[in-house]
Amino acid sequence: MDCHTQSLQSNIGQHTDGRESNAGRRYLEGPKERPKTSDRVLNLYEDKEYDRTFDNKPMHLYDINFIHPFQFLETDQVRLEPFVPAKHIEGFLALPDSSWNVMGDLGPYNRQTALEDIEAFRSDPQCLLLAIMDKQRENAGMDAFAGVYGLIEVSEYMDAVFGVINVHPRYQRTHVNTHCMSLVLSYLFDTLRLIRVQYDAVIFNVQSIKSAGRFGFKEEGIARNYNGLVPASKKRKGEEKRQSQDMWLGSMTDYEWETEGRNTLKEMLKRMPVDTTSLE
Q1: Mean pLDDT for each consecutive 10-residue tract of the chain (280 residues)?
Q2: Is 59-278 in CATH node 3.40.630.30?
Q3: What pairs with residue 148 in β-bridges?
Q4: CA geometry: angle at 162 spanning 161 and 163, to 5°?
Q5: Which part of the chain has CATH 3.40.630.30?
Q6: Could you say which of 73, 160, 186, 198 would form a disulfide bridge with 154 (CB–CB 3.0 to 4.6 Å)?
Q7: What does pTM read for this prediction?
Q8: Is residue 64 exposed (0-12), middle (13-18) or buried (19+ Cβ within 10 Å)?
């Protein structure tokens, strides 16, 4: 024990007038046994089934609980609207199981697990789940649900992350994803004035990574085990399972959007749209 410690112990229990202090006594005596947690807090946890409160709420009564104002986003071909289970759950469940194979620990879903994840998304004010509506098919009276876009970690002034993009496989190599990306990036950069948008993809989702580069996202690197380990019961096997949570990270800044990203997507939107009413 050095001189400083001896001096501290000799004086810590005394007031300046020589009286012993409570703080000093506690220091010299050491900590007392702490009360049990159950004696100090209330814990009403119950292992119960998911409360399906929001299953049947119509769109005009459904609270999206989002930190920013939001209006429907649309071009002449697609519309992005908040995901409302009463309107969109059947389309969501119709997404092929195989479409979730490159989505990390998301999906495939049954009705119960879908509603659980959708409600978890809604309950976080920094998340927004959007339904993609195909206006060609909608105008023709056909099933118009085309997939989902999900934003996470949307901060008030700084950045946002694409948490999920699952466009129905029938729309591969069509205009749909390009129109959606243009709408969302314009909303994030031009309306919300954010300064950075991040794009994640599991490393074996080669098509998604190529799309990100085509849209103007710059590679930042690989984040290993980015979201932890996938439960053994879920999807991936062998080498792909080991890689399932290694994530490719890309981003776009507000400067990149202003100088090239916006114009790149504007040119891509000039592409002749596919007749989606003929798609199976």
Answers
A1: 41 46 46 47 51 68 89 96 94 92 82 90 92 97 97 93 95 96 98 96 90 97 74 49 73 98 96 94
A2: yes
A3: 131, 166
A4: 100
A5: 59-278
A6: 160
A7: 0.77
A8: middle
